[in-house]
Predict the structure.
Amino acid sequence: MTTAGTPQAGDRALLPDLAGRRELVGAWASLSLIHYFVVEAAAMAAWQGSPSYDRRSHVISDLGAANCGPFNGYLVCSPLNWLMNASFVLQGVAMVLGAVLLSSAVLSVAATPGQRAIRTGPGNIPWLAAGAVRALILVAGIGQAMVGLIPEDTELAWHLTGAGLYFIAAPIALAILGFVWLRRSSMSWMVLLFGVVSVGATVYVLASALRVDEPGSIERTMAYPIILGLSLVGLTVAYRVHGERRRIRRLAAPAR
């Protein structure tokens, strides 16, 4: 891979626009996922089901249940279900925007200060891996939007399908991108760690056929790292884009 400046003779390379509005919007869309924790706290505080909401025993989707009544062996009643489901949908939309607006070339070079060219082609692992990351995040975003649009107590099969897409695709994307970014960004280890932790928790749940003790705890071990990891990706890209925009403004400023 070319590491900076002009690509070598004979290379096919992309020179991504690291200072464009498209890249900035995509980065901030990914970073916006962090809003989830505020919404979850508000929905938990408003909970009126029985027993009282407990992060260890209640799954996240209970906060988005459309109706008050018996479900999954206890009484669910979440007055702020509309807010929780809106958060799920907004997360999904933000992930889709990030996947569409952040090109493979941008994701490949964003974590490496000074790098502006990325080689393309069948043999270029970072570029191909970044493309896979985009596809996986797109799938995960669609799944997360489904979770919000189809609450658990309406069409459970479709709700679980959306959750499955999210919990399988998103952590794999984080693990791949964290590996690609290794030794290129101080955030790489955190992104990789969040991906591995979420993948491990998801494999555990699937291996146990969805029958686990403290389902709320294990689901949050799957979900929280995804939100934090994708937010870190957005922060890393946004930091690079803002830096490139400042550099361009300095070069364009008239000499004093």
